[in-house]
């Protein structure tokens, strides 16, 4: 199997003049970009970084970050991107945990990086100076001449992503060239991509979705259209300017795009295929997205950093809420929560924990120096996801939430996703999140946090749930109207923030 560097060389040899990357007015063909990438790869080696070393990258989605990603693939360096919103404490943790030999940053990450004493003991690479006169300027790594580097092998580590750390300190997820290439190839196949596709590069390159978009385009001579950070108008401008043909976003970003006042169908007319991942898309949003884009392909991906894709549905709009069936490189099962064995498979319709086969080509082999995390999640050759779900009679998977999100009210188990789906179809509901609030009598009460687009009250929403046939114990007992739904940097709903904020307000009432 090719490593990623050789995969890129194959594309350069096949279509050297095809546009590989754009970033506003900046653009490079594959042949031109290879020169930049190789020059940077040699520059990293000159700074003392070698095969198997970690380079922490704290940048927005600019062409320089994408160039560093590919330079690391050629040099055999492990690119280790982290959130550009990280604090100095976050950066310090990752520098120490990865034993990084270098850190690259732009203005967005400069303050946090430069506040870390540990950063001054290793090579620092800055885009545009960023107030660090002693750092190596990224621009100085360009324009060099020399041998074509291709140091990595398929089993070498290509990339290490850090999980969000919502249940503790972040865990490093090392992924090999082989696993990354397999995931990129599956992404191409499952999204029916063709030569010369153009994808929107707005999902962060510290997130598996952003990396998948970057790599998949390089396999098919496609273009990666950088948008440094998501802004609805800037994103629409990029789609329009570069004639983007496919989108791969979290549901929140679709919502923000189609709700933006300057959104018009003609501005996104070039988009033919759309995909989403990272969270479920409610039935209401799905209908609005389909009407806005009229795509030929509407794909739902369900996966994670550890294993790129678990399931996929290429007709996401046919059965809202479904995540489809096992992807090209995967097998899945649903087992009881706290199952002792992956062989305790539940029958169709019964909810439990979703697990995935670690023998799949896209799978990682374990967390970075975290044996306790391996012991919890990796058992008998299967990855226990901590996601809840069930398979219907057709064999389609429905993901109902995290094990920790399950609401237990009056002894009954309630999954938030089903209720969110029903409420999202009310015409005055813009966004909704359902969670369980503590209650002395019921243990937890089903509570809907609702952002509305027009006048509506609790009675109207209750009647809507009744008319939709929602079982009585699943209907919200409480509605809380909010101005905004808190989300992470990649658009995931922060359910825990809603609960914590509400708990704080109840404590002070």
TrEMBL record:
InterPro entries, alphabetized: AMP-bd_C, AMP-bd_C_sf, AMP-binding_CS, AMP-dep_synth/lig_dom, ANL_N_sf
AMP-dependent synthetase/ligase domain ranges (all copies): 10-368
Coiled coil region boundaries: none
Domain AMP-binding enzyme C-terminal, residue spans: 418-492
Gene3D superfamilies per record: 3.30.300.30, N-terminal domain of ligase-like
Pfam families cross-referenced by the UniProt entry: AMP-binding (PF00501), AMP-binding_C (PF13193)
MF (Gene Ontology): medium-chain fatty acid-CoA ligase activity
GO biological process, one term: fatty acid metabolic process
Keyword annotations: Ligase
Family: Belongs to the ATP-dependent AMP-binding enzyme family.
UniProt protein name: AMP-binding protein
Organism: Salinicola corii
Source taxonomy: Bacteria, Pseudomonadati, Pseudomonadota, Gammaproteobacteria, Oceanospirillales
